[in-house]
Amino acid sequence: MTSSVYASTLGLSAxxxxxxxxxxxxxxxxxxxxxxxxxxxxxLACVALAIGFHEHDxxxxxxxxxxxxxxxxxxxxxxTRVVRHDPTSRxxxxxxxxxxxxxxxxxxxxxxxxxxxxxxALEPTTAGRLIPFGVAAMLVGFFALATRxxxxxxxxxxxxxxxGVALVAFLATAGVPVIVELGASLDVLLxxxxxxxxxxxxxxxxGSLDLDQLAELHx
Amino acid sequence: MxxxxxxAWGASTSVLQVAAxxxxxxVLVGLxxxxxxxxxxxxxxxxLQPLLDVRKLFRKERLRPDQASxxxxxxxxxxxxxxxxxxxxxxxxxxRPALGTGADLFVLVYLLLSGSTLLALAGMDAGTAFGGMGxxxxxxxxxxxxxxxxxxxxxxxxxxxxxxxxEIVRSTLAAPxxxxxxxxxxxxxxxxxxxxxESGRLPVDNPSTHxxxxxxxxxxxxxxxxxxxxxxxxxxxxRMALLLCVFVxxxxxxxxxxSMTPLAALVGLVSLGAKVALVGVVMAxxxxxxxxxxxxxxxxxxxxxxVLALLGVVSGTVLS
Lengths: 219, 320
What we know:
The complex is a heterodimer of chains A (219) and B (320). Chain A is built from 8 helices and no strands. With 219 residues, chain A is mostly helical. Chain A has one domain. Chain A starts with a helix and ends in a 13-residue tail after the last helix. In chain A, 46% of the residues are buried. In chain B, helix 1 crosses helix 9. Chain B is mainly α and 320 residues long. At the A-B interface, helix 1 and helix 4 of A face helix 7 and helix 11 of B.
């Protein structure tokens, strides 16, 4: 892989991770949000694969395949099942409306680029300069967690944060050891399974996945 | 090469560009209608139908509302004139059109905007309820699209270090890698949303509807008839074609004439036509699967375009 192809692949994939994070704020349909999450997982795998090829690191290539399987296929499928059972699967009334949250996402992107300036100066490699994309994806995930009301959007927000952290890890250190990455991935998988069980229980008891319903007492 | 040949080349290609945009715009509208009709299972009108419609309109009697002021007949002329000037100076067929040094993206955008502004004024001029409603909606969309467009221009001009359109196209030809940079792709995606909004296509406005409560553009030009309507139709078609031409030349400028020979100009013309036809067919095909957005949801779409352009600027600063 020549260095220009490597640079553009890496840049495009990292930008796609951030773009997917922003698009989850844009779309209202929960089904579409979960699809975007799957695309983000695939883009993250692309980043790992590109770095793996460039550094001739077989371990990283294996991780890329694992990331593709876990974050691109398994986790989105698990969440899709929750969405499919929810008839009103739309984020109809987020705490901050869509245009305002998009502008806020733009501000968060600027913030992350300003905040990571010293980090990127420390590591001015092709991968190191892309670190702000990961931090921005993470911040957008936090924003989704804070302002979205449906349980599914909150799970997606958590996964956005996790994907952002993973992107920063890949870009900054050319990948953490396989065992650490495996541990982190299993952790997230477990969290999703737990949240899925919680969502199912919640629907059985409350009748919807709207978290505001939990603020009052029910019989 | 002397200065005289430069001037002659620039002038002749600019005339060619304006003629191509004027004719090609109407053909493009016909092509998009045809593709849409075919995909919906209809036969659809012939591709050259918009040309025939315009010819019919030009032969009709000139009818204007009694109460209308001088703005009403003035607006279509200004619309055509501004689009023609923009088409003359933009790098469509050649990278060295006449007055190319003045073909700044800002100049182009505000030339097109002055035409639409006057058309919005003319919509209110006749004093009917629908005209005013259409104008107010069109201006609202224009105002929402403008921040996105300005940030897009900023993102596009970063890689070329210039907001001059021929200069951007030339630098793209010199370094083809910039096309697949995140900055350029984000900016072009944002530009596409803005083009859709400005030319009144789905999901912003339905160009084929005549239901008064939902239409935007058609409501604005409701009072126009005969030759005036023909001018408005031609101007709108030209504007859409010009915007799409600029879009494809920023996305894939290959084929555009870099040398000053008639053959290069011919190649430029044919490749431009092919690229724009392709984009038009894809757009028309996508429209079949789209519904019109509610008017109150349009800010979300255009805020999305704004954030895309912003991401373009930010990634341009990081990766440059």
